[in-house]
Amino acid sequence: MNWKNLLLAFAASAVGAAAQAADGGPGTGFYVGAQGGFAHYNFSNVSNNGQFGGGGYAGFLFTPNLAVEASYNSLGGFDGEGANTGLTAKGSGFDVGLAVYLPIGSNSLQVYAKLGVSSTTLKLSVNGSAPAGVVLVTDSYDKTSVATSLGLVYFVHSNVGLRAALNVYPVGGAQNDNGFNSGYALTGTVGAEFHF
C-alpha cells in the first residue's frame, strides 16, 4: 500500500469537505464520545478471539467537516492455542489523527473517517499450563504505526451523534517467541458523541 497516495487522498477529501456548508450537523468546537464493541486479532493459534473492546475519544472541529481527534481504547484480547496454550493476551491503544465528517444528503447522516498515528500495547500473560516441552514467554509488545477508522454518524440533534465505526490498529512485535509478530486488531464499535 502506498501511504503517500492514501495521505493525499485523505487530504483532498478533507479540503473538499471543509468547503461544504453544514446545516443541521455539528458546528465547530470540542466534542467527546464513548464507544464499545468487539475486537478481533488476525493471529493464528488463538481462541476466544472477538472479545469486548471500547473506550473514549475527544476532538476539536475546526470546520463542520474537519477535526483533530484522539482516542484511547481497550482492544479486547485472546487466548493462545496449540503451542501458545496457556497464554492470554490483552491489547490497548491510543491514537491521534485527522477526522472528516462528510454529509450524505442531509447533514444528519455523515460518513466519518480518521487517519492517524497509533501507539498500541499487546500484553501476554500465563493463565494455565503450557504443552509438554513448551516454555511460555510473557512479554509486552509496543507498536507505533498508522491507524484508520471508517464509519457513519447519525446526528439526532446538532449536538448529539450516534457513531458506528470499524477501526484498524496495528499490533504485535517485529519478532517474538510466540508468533504474534506484526498484525492488527480490527474493532467494530458503536457509541455516542456530544458536541459542545
Keywords:
196 residues, mainly beta, Porin, eight-stranded antiparallel β-barrel, elongated
The percent range for strand residues is over 45%
Number of domains: 1
N to C succession of SSEs: HEEEEEEEEE
CATH class: Mainly Beta
CATH fold description: Porin
Q: What would you report as the Rg, rounded to the nearest angstrom?
A: 19 Å
How many DSSP-defined strands? 9
The major sheet is characterized as: 8 strands, antiparallel, barrel
Summarize the structure.
The chain has 196 residues and is mostly beta strands. It has one helix at 3-18; strands at 29-41, 46-47, 51-61, 66-80, 87-104, 106-126, 140-157, 160-171, 183-195.
Protein architecture, described:
The protein is elongated and about 60 Å long. It is mainly beta and about 200 residues long. Strand 3 and strand 4 (about 65-80) form a beta hairpin. The chain has one domain (about 30-195): Porin (Beta Barrel), CATH 2.40.160.20. It has an eight-stranded antiparallel beta barrel. It has one helix and nine strands. It has one helix spanning about 5-20; strands at about 30-40, 45, 50-60, 65-80, 85-105, 105-125, 140-155, 160-170, 185-195.
Secondary structure layout:
Elements: H1 3-18, E1 29-41, E2 46-47, E3 51-61, E4 66-80, E5 87-104, E6 106-126, E7 140-157, E8 160-171, E9 183-195
Antiparallel strand pairs: 1-3, 1-9, 2-4, 3-4, 4-5, 5-6, 6-7, 7-8, 8-9
